[in-house]
What we know:
The protein is built from 5 helices and 8 strands; from the N terminus they run ββααβββααβββα. With 257 residues, it is of the alpha+beta class.
Amino acid sequence: xxxxxxxxxxxxxxxxxxxxxxxxxxxxxxxxxxxxxxxxxxxxxxxxxxxxxxxxxxxxxxxxxxxxxxxxxxxxxxxxxxxxxxxxxxxxxxxxxxxxxxxxxxxxxxxxxxxxxxxxxxxxxxxxxxxxxxxxxxxxxxxxxxxxxxxxxxxxxxxxxxxxxxxxxxxxxxxxxxxxxxxxxxxxxxxxxxxxxxxxxxxxxxxxxxxxxxxxxxxxxxxxxxxxxxxxxxxxxxxxxxxxxxxxxxxxxxxxx
Length: 257
């Protein structure tokens, strides 16, 4: 009987070595946009045209951190366009920005009531391009606050769609110098500027007579479009200058597309 005591059970040998993978982290929801319109008009008496602000911009929906970041950056850019005076208003909403612009006009007209020159501020935005690595919002603007003519142009806002953060040049280009060199070659060919001549030899006015990329760089299905707005590098009468660089030629210099 003494030889029948219980022996401890041996630890079972593990034979199944299948690895159980953790569930995939869900991909961030795709950003959706809906345009929102704002407008405000001066209440002062006017004849044919009245001073007015109209803003039509794409708003990222969903309330995610990326959406909030995009909407905030877009608002900040618009606020830096729609103003009169030495510096932009510190308005915290589109309504406050519009109200400040209208007030600037009203205050001036009350002081110089013999003037009857309505002002206009107009912003029209759209999602120009969207990929997994890049979101491009285009803003067309027109501002008139008196004088011979107003000024119009396009702004390009480039974002990382996953984070909503605005992209810098270093986020876009692998080799900005090589991209710029090719862009100059294409620009010269399009506007018939001889290779041996200075970039300003045909009447342009690049700073320090040196070709440079514009602030407005747009992405599209066909390639990268460089836009020099009116009066940036040429006389107002010549209008804007543009050049399209196909991805087949510049893709090697880009981090995103």
